[in-house]
Design goal:
Helix content of chain B: 55-70%
Number of domains of chain B: 1
Oligomer: heterodimer
Distance between the termini of chain A: 25 Å
CATH topology of chain B: Butyryl-CoA Dehydrogenase, subunit A, domain 3
Shape of chain B: globular
Number of strands of chain B: 0
Order of helices and strands of chain B: HHHHHHHH
Mean pLDDT of chain A: 77
Distance between the termini of chain B: 49 Å
Largest sheet of chain B: none
Radius of gyration of chain B: 17 Å
Number of domains of chain A: 2
CATH superfamily of chain B: PhyR, sigma-like (SL) domain
Low-confidence stretches of chain A: 72-123
């Protein structure tokens, strides 16, 4: 800083303005204490809120992990519902009990049977009251040694279905690389033979995974039957009414339209009920048979801690996805806010630089 | 002063909070000077000073002595208050453009400041006067002044040198 600048500065300091007395009196006048409102400065709020949110997320993940890991390592997915939904119907009284076979560990939706455990080839299937109509859906992954065994197992699988009164709806056999291959088979077997079918299919190789779900259709069937009975009564009543010779023409036309409509609805309900009965009578089995490299073995049975951690990590990943989604939604707003902030900042600069 | 006995201009290392009345008594002149230089309007500066201390009183609980001196904190509030005033003034001038354009500023920046320096200050932009006020009159250090202005220290130094150079040039012209 030059000597002349120093002079300017000294002059500015020496002649600095002083606040007038009336302003001093105004500013320094005693004031009532401001009303205390509970608030945190934004930075402090962020310092509290972020770790709190993180803590809640981790706690929720751990709780979820503990709850999902459960005390019993086994559970088979049950889907009971009057209309095929996954929610149990009030009418449904399907016992939630299982056969006393050794029960494999759960992966995802169903049961996963660890490899090399021949005892577990005995398939765990949920039992259901035989008087009720139910649809069974099963999927199995079976590993075989090589493509020759794959071919043989595929043939055997279709034979098993046929021998039990069922059929193979589709067979997709693929051997894309030397030594590797897989067959994707959709089987339909009579519901009463599903246990036998699964048991026999399990003998084709090493079971890698197995999922089984039973959907109670009894409620749906009863609803459809009640609707059909009601429609039949209506059709009979309309026919009786139309048989009356004293019926006015306009009324007759109206009743004829109603009769046609009721007949159409009846036909629809009958068709739907046939579908329900068929669905209950036939079980669907999705079978994947593959060679060693085509089908990776399922991880070994996890302990409770392992399952808990696995579940907690899954839950955390879900939370992260939700957070990411929220970030994606919020980011345009944040960008807009940043632009507004920049614009205001520039406007202040312009304002103060205008001489 | 009941909380600290040291100067209120410096941030307290211990984070002790001085009493608001003490801070107001000590910083009133500084805030007033800053606002006079920034606005170039003594009357407005008086009002804005009062408003600044009103706001400061309401948010005194949020003042953190560890993060800066009371002077820096008050100057930030004063700046925000002044910017609002500038905006309102700009709008008012737009509405009354003809009238405002013909009204010269006759305010004095300092008590008994020589006329040429007064003139020279008037020719500076508010932003330049502001940095002069903060660094010269209020004697804020570089980082504190930069924080008040919301710019980097380098930009703050550049702005100050330019403003002082312009003042000096003007004074040289007068001397010659």
């Amino acid at each position: 800083m030059s000597a002349s600048e120093f002079t300017v500065e000294s002059m500015l300091r020496a002649h600095a303005p002083h606040a007038p007395e009336d302003l001093r009196a105004r500013v320094l006048a005693p004031r009532p204490a401001p009303v205390r409102r509970w608030s945190l400065p934004p930075r402090r709020l962020a310092l509290v809120a972020l770790p709190a949110a993180l803590g809640i997320a981790v706690t929720a993940a751990l709780v979820s992990g503990i709850v999902r890991s459960g005390n019993h390592p086994a559970a088979v997915q049950h889907t009971f519902g009057s209309a095929g939904s996954s929610v149990g119907s009030g009418a449904s009284t399907v016992p939630d009990t299982f056969s006393p076979h050794p029960v494999p560990s759960v992966t995802g939706r169903g049961i996963a049977v660890p490899q090399d455990n021949n005892a577990l080839k005995a398939v765990a299937t949920p039992s259901i009251a035989s008087s009720r109509l139910a649809h069974t859906d099963a999927s199995l992954q079976i590993r075989v040694g090589d493509t020759d065994a794959l071919s043989a197992a595929t043939t055997k699988a279709t034979r098993i279905a046929t021998s039990l009164g069922g059929y193979a709806k589709s067979v997709d056999y693929r051997t894309p690389r030397g030594g590797n291959g897989a067959a994707y088979i959709e089987l339909r077997v009579p519901a009463q033979n599903v246990k036998t079918a699964i048991s026999r299919l399990g003998g084709l190789g090493t079971i890698v995974s197995q999922e089984l779900s039973v959907t109670d259709l009894q409620g749906k069937l009863e609803t459809q039957s009640a609707q059909i009975a009601q429609l039949r009564r209506r059709v009979a009543a309309l026919r009786t009414a139309l048989a009356d010779p004293a019926l006015p023409d306009a009324q007759r036309v109206l009743l004829q339209i109603q009769l046609a409509e009721s007949k159409r609805a009846l036909a629809q309900r009958l068709s739907a009920r046939r579908g329900t009965v068929t669905s209950g009578a036939t079980a669907r089995i999705s079978l994947v048979i593959g060679t060693e490299k085509a089908i990776a073995p399922v991880a070994h049975h996890r302990g409770r801690l392992g399952r808990m951690l696995h579940s907690a990590v899954g839950f955390l990943a879900l939370e992260a996805m939700v957070a990411l989604y929220a970030l994606i939604v919020i980011s345009p707003l944040a960008l807009a806010a940043a632009l507004v902030w920049l614009w205001r900042r520039r406007s202040v600069e312009r304002l103060l630089h205008a001489s | 002063m009941n909380a600290v006995s040291t100067s209120l201009d410096t941030p307290s290392l211990l984070g002790a909070r001085p009493a608001f009345a003490d801070v107001a008594a000590e910083q009133l002149d500084a805030v007033f000077r800053y606002l006079v230089y920034l606005t170039g309007d003594r009357a407005a500066a008086e009002d804005l000073t009062a408003e600044t201390f009103e706001k400061a009183f309401r948010s005194w609980r949020r003042f953190d002595p560890r993060r800066g001196s009371p002077r820096t904190w008050l100057c930030k509030i004063a700046r925000s208050v002044a910017i609002d005033w500038f905006r309102a003034e700009t709008r008012r001038r737009r509405r009354e453009e003809t009238y405002s354009r013909d009204v010269p500023l006759v305010e004095e920046f300092g008590d008994g400041l020589p006329g040429p320096l007064q003139e020279a200050l008037r020719e500076l932009s508010p932003a330049e006067r502001e940095v002069v006020a903060l660094r010269v009159l209020l004697e804020l250090d570089g980082p504190s002044a930069a924080r008040v202005l919301g710019i980097s220290q380098t930009a703050c130094s550049t702005r100050l040198s330019r403003a002082l150079r312009r003042l000096e040039e003007r004074m040289d012209d007068v001397r010659e």
